[in-house]
Amino acid sequence: MRGEANGGEDLGQPRGEDREHDEEGEERQNGGAAHQRQPQAQRPAARPSSGQQPQHNPTPPVTMRNVGYVGKHRLSAAIARLDQELQSLQEELNELETMEPASTACQDVITSTGGKPDPLLPITSGPENSSWDRWFQRVRSSRSNKWWASRGSDFS
Amino acid sequence: MASVADLKEKHAAATASVNSLRERLRQRREMLLDTDVARYSKVQGRAPVSFNPTDLVCCRTLQGHSGKVYSLDWTPEKNWIVSASQDGRLIVWNALTSQKTHAIKLHCPWVMTCAFAPNGQSVACGGLDSACSIFNLNSQADRDGNMPVSRILTGHKGYVSSCQYVPDQETRLITSSGDQTCVLWDVTTGQRISIFGGEFPSGHTADVQSVSINSSNTNMFVSGSCDATVRLWDIRIASRAVRTYHGHEGDVNSVKFFPDGHRFGTGSEDGTCRLFDMRTGHQLQVYSREPDRNDNELPAVTSIAFSISGRLLFAGYSNGDCYVWDTLLAEVVLNLGNLQNSHDGRISCLGMSSDGSALCTGSWDKNLKVRTFKKRLFPFTTS
């Protein structure tokens, strides 16, 4: 349903692919709170660069086919977006100058998992809550037995 | 306006600057990753969670859909579950009795997501119709037995992949879409309150697959996308994402906040789950399966959920596995897909009951299953 991994058997809309073909349509004006499709020119810059490159790259390599007005307009918009992204990347870099390392957050994660009693753990901090065992109470079956499915459980 | 040649040059220069800055950022972040959760936990001598194969029993199998189950959601209060299926229906179940309380035939059968309102009185669903439909469960069915829609939220320009009500707010809902945006809706008026992404540069650059609202701070939510990133949003500031989280190498199919509200988990087409720190952006842990003997591609993660303490991370995979990860030690402690009474197909969705006592899984085998810890014979001991 959601992409390549489902074997293509379903009704899912091809993801992203309709956008690849939509070069001319990108300049259409929409009313209200419409969003503009991001120009293809910007896509390579928008790929995450941390660590390895993504395995699959849905966008084709960038080629400037339109050299008319439409191309100039789209290029300018792409440059403006890149500039804004540069700004925000620089802000993030500045933030990292004074940021604490991962170990601080790791300690927090460990501490927080000890906080709450967890019914699904073999050993957990108390107190026991008897309502956790409500799944084992015998339930009165009704006349409409066809929805009754205790035979699908590990106990009857 | 400058010539095309000048603009092209400017564009190339800006692209090069962005790429170089991204690389510096990546390196700087790597230097700050002095450890991960698993290494840190081992150093502290934490013992792994230890399950017997029969510990998490299947206590209910909910049968009734005639097509693959795509999505499920629990009520916050009662023991009800709503599920959405390829059969074009929503079913509302009383999970305790296994009975169906409602079977709702949808106008558009291509449904992908469903959600319960906080008060349990309404359900929402969305899919390929690019809209989100709201049903009031107290409505009377019409002569044909169909439940009337009480509101349709239109405006997305692509499929609705995921929806979630803002906790404690019956009137607000967030959707994610194939149109690369997320939207905050006012359910009573049907209006879009805010659009996250789209024309703004800090939005996702591909379909958005999943959202998760922070229950500790309901102004914040995260979205996972086919652009391989997760973005954090403040609903009061739609103009730009608060932060973008890199690391995954494929579509992010599922995002869920960690119970403490300061971290979140992700599941991806790249076969891994990850834990990110919301505030700093650090990738705290990767949960990566062993490749199989034939070195085949890793199965994709379709859906994730945390146990109520966060100690367990449940992950459904495209091959039918449902791993239970020890979040702290990054080890698989159980595979619910490999037990007696497991699903016969891909696990498409997972959800934890609000008190954490039961996990529900939905599958392409058309069923839902509820699992809980086996009945305890002895009092709980402190850990």
TrEMBL record, chain A:
Residues 1-10 have a biased composition (Gly residues). It is found in: Cell membrane. The keyword Coiled coil applies. SMART domains: G_gamma. Keywords: Cell membrane, Coiled coil, Membrane, Transducer. Residues 36-48 have a biased composition (Low complexity). InterPro entries: G-protein_gamma-like_dom, GG1/2. Residues 104-114 have a biased composition (Polar residues). Its main location: membrane. Pfam families: G-gamma. Residues 76-149 form the G protein gamma domain. One of its GO terms (cellular component) is plasma membrane. Residues 1-69, 98-129 are annotated as: Disordered. One of its GO terms (biological process) is G protein-coupled receptor signaling pathway. It comes from the Eukaryota. This is G protein gamma domain-containing protein.
Automatic annotation (TrEMBL), chain B:
InterPro entries: G-protein_beta_1-5, WD40/YVTN_repeat-like_dom_sf, WD40_G-protein_beta-like, WD40_PAC1, WD40_repeat_CS, WD40_repeat_dom_sf, WD40_rpt. It comes from the Eukaryota. PROSITE patterns: WD_REPEATS_1 (PS00678), WD_REPEATS_2 (PS50082), WD_REPEATS_REGION (PS50294). The keyword Repeat applies. Keywords: Repeat, Transducer, WD repeat. Belongs to the WD repeat G protein beta family. This is Guanine nucleotide-binding protein subunit beta. The lineage of its organism: Eukaryota, Viridiplantae, Streptophyta, Embryophyta, Tracheophyta.
